[in-house]
UniProtKB/TrEMBL annotation:
Pfam families: DDHD, SAM_1, WWE_3. This is DDHD2 Phospholipase. One of its GO terms (cellular component) is COPII-coated ER to Golgi transport vesicle. The gene is Ddhd2. SMART domains: DDHD, SAM. It comes from Catharus fuscescens (Veery).
């Protein structure tokens, strides 16, 4: 029983911390953090910032004892000295003050007026706001935890304001956000010491900032450290998921993942290299969605039909040649099958043309089209979809949605030689993908133009969480529309005037000329009226849905935030802030919540205009 009392543990902060009551310690559950002190707070004093600070437990017991004696006996004006030799006077139940002495000597003979400004003392916790005094630390782990805390706090606010009905009906609970730390594992390999030896002493802070952050991009592209990063990320994601399920056995919801900046690229590479179900793997190996060999043979027959070589179907069927076997064929194999030279050339040209599509993502179940093409051709390729040397671990769960914030995925794919993403491609184990970025974020790149390169279209404008566009954006659109209207009206008037000047003089009766003038006037009136209708027609052209493939289940992928009015004055000045704004962005959080709850059939209380 004594041991049980010593080990009393109470989960707090949504289960993210465990409080050991006997030891008075608070320990982080999911990440490493310095153990913090816990106090049983019953007496407080107000500091210079008007915040209530708790007394130590031992001194609180002294205050409580003196207070109870004063209440019982009616004897007030009690004077106590704190461990810091500060004076507390209990005048009456509603007036208790704390004095800070100005000198260490003669404290007892000095009067309260000589001891500085008195501060209020309070008994009990009523009407005291709970505040966490610790601020963000300097290490990336601490900054990550506080960034996720900001995201979590904003999500709770959005849950109250936009999902109140579902919450009152107990249809939804809150969404938990847990940080995944890989930075410390990378920099614990001793690389920081090596970098320190070669770092120049000038502009010390900037160089250390680059070593701690920007160089991670180069580490990830390094064959030496890339494996360390992906192993750490995958193992940490699996550990967090398993630990969360252990602590929440009743949890039945889904899991979504989010990555910011380089983290989104790491997650994308990890997800593209996940293996689907065993049945799907079998389908992929056969190049067909059917597991039977007849399905593969039928597909080969279709290929031969396209090449106008249907008369050789029996030969391929006799050799039990499916699609995979066909792409492994060499000219010698076809010759041994008795295929003449002309048909052989057609088949080999078809195989080579399909192999040359290695810069596209696979349209089937294969996760890396370039690796697939290499297998088919028997040659090694130097332009991979993901890192060359990395052996990507498998996650022990299937994420529902992948959110990328300020992501350079598009840029890295382009640098790796990926010119186009096949519209039929989707992540093997994750059906949702959202690329969210600020318009001034210098690190962010789009994804949709890589899927539909022949079309030019804008990303989806992320609706404002209050249900309208920002005022300056509406004003900008209104002025643009007005200028277009004025331009069209002016051009229409000039066109009619030019036509009247250049019209050849034709002798006619006066009545006929009057009719011509009437027609000209009618044309003048019609032409300006028809031109202003062009901008609304252009707007209507944007309303039909754009097919951006299956990467996000047929839905739009790129979402751009609305910049704030002050940000629109200077794009360069707010570029860095644009890359870090996602953790406190209500619009970003609302989109995340909307998409997560939508998987459970829960919608917003009031649909936002412009949302998909």
């Amino acid at each position: 029983a004594g041991k049980a009392q010593d080990d009393v543990v109470v989960p707090t902060s949504g289960g993210r911390y465990d409080v050991h009551l006997r030891a008075r310690r608070r320990v982080a559950v999911y990440w490493e953090e310095e153990v913090s002190e816990v106090r049983r707070c019953t007496w407080f004093y107000k500091d210079k910032d008007n915040k209530f600070i708790p007394y130590s437990e031992s001194f609180s017991e002294e205050l409580e004892e003196a207070y109870m004696i004063a209440v019982t006996l009616g004897e007030w004006k009690k004077k106590l000295e704190s461990p810091n030799r500060e004076v507390i006077i209990l005048h009456n139940p509603k007036l208790m003050v704390h004095y800070h002495p100005v000198a260490s000597s003669d404290d007892w003979v000095s009067t309260p007026t000589e001891q500085g400004r008195p501060r209020t003392v309070k008994r009990g916790v009523e009407n005291i706001a709970v505040e966490i005094p610790n601020g963000p630390g300097g290490s990336p782990q601490e900054l990550l935890c506080f960034a996720v805390n900001d995201f979590r706090n904003v999500s709770l606010s959005m849950l109250q304001s936009h999902f109140r009905k579902a919450q009152e009906q107990q249809q939804v609970g809150r969404v938990e956000f847990l940080p995944v730390n890989w930075h410390s594992s990378l920099h614990s390999t001793g690389v920081d010491v090596d970098l320190e030896r070669i770092t120049l002493p000038s502009i010390n802070r900037l160089r250390h900032f680059i070593n701690d952050t920007i160089l991670d991009v180069f580490f990830y592209n390094s064959s030496t450290y890339c494996q360390t990063i992906v192993d750490t990320v995958a193992s940490e994601m699996n550990r967090l998921h398993q630990l969360f399920l252990q602590r929440n056995p009743q949890f039945k919801g889904g899991v979504s993942i989010a990555g910011h900046s380089l983290g989104s690229l790491i997650l994308f590479d990890l997800l593209t290299n996940q293996k689907a179900d065993p049945e799907e793997d079998e389908h992929c190996a056969q190049g067909s969605r059917t597991a039977s060999s007849t399905g593969g043979i039928e597909e080969v027959k279709e290929i031969l039909k396209q090449l106008e070589l249907s008369e050789y179907c029996d030969v391929f069927e006799k050799e039990k040649m499916d699609r995979q076997a066909l792409f492994l064929c060499t000219e010698q194999n076809l010759k041994e099958m008795g295929i003449p030279l002309g048909p052989r050339m057609k088949i080999l040209h078809y195989i080579s043309s399909r192999t040359e599509m290695k810069v596209k993502l696979s349209s089937g179940c294969t996760h890396n089209a370039l690796t697939t093409a290499a297998r088919r051709s028997g040659a090694a390729l130097s332009i991979p979809l993901s890192q060359v040397s990395a052996n990507y671990p498998q996650l022990n769960y299937r994420p529902s949605i992948f959110f990328a914030f300020g992501s350079p995925i598009g840029m890295f794919l382009t640098v790796r030689g990926v010119k186009r993403i096949d519209p039929n491609y989707s992540l093997p184990t994750c059906k949702g993908f959202f690329n969210i970025f600020h318009p001034f974020d210098p690190v962010a790149y789009r994804i949709e133009p890589m899927i539909v390169p022949e079309l030019e279209f804008e990303p989806m404008l992320l609706p404002h969480h209050k249900g309208r566009k920002r005022m300056h954006l509406e004003l900008k659109e209104g002025l643009t529309r007005m200028s277009v209207d004025l331009k069209n009206n002016l051009l229409g008037s000039l066109r009619v005037a030019w036509q009247s000047f250049t019209r050849a003089p034709v002798p006619a009766l006066e009545a006929g000329s009057a009719e011509a003038e009437a027609e000209a006037e009618a044309g003048t009136e019609k032409q300006p009226d028809m031109k202003p209708e062009e901008p609304p027609a252009a707007v209507k052209e944007e309303t039909p849905p754009i097919n951006v493939g299956r990467l996000n289940g047929g839905n739009r992928i790129d979402y751009v935030l609305q910049e704030k009015p002050i940000e629109s004055f200077n794009e360069y000045l707010f570029a860095l802030q644009g890359h870090l704004c996602y953790w406190e962005s209500e619009d970003t959080v609302l989109l995340v919540l909307k998409e997560i709850y939508q998987t459970q059939g829960i919608t917003l209380d009031q649909p936002l205009p412009g949302s998909q």
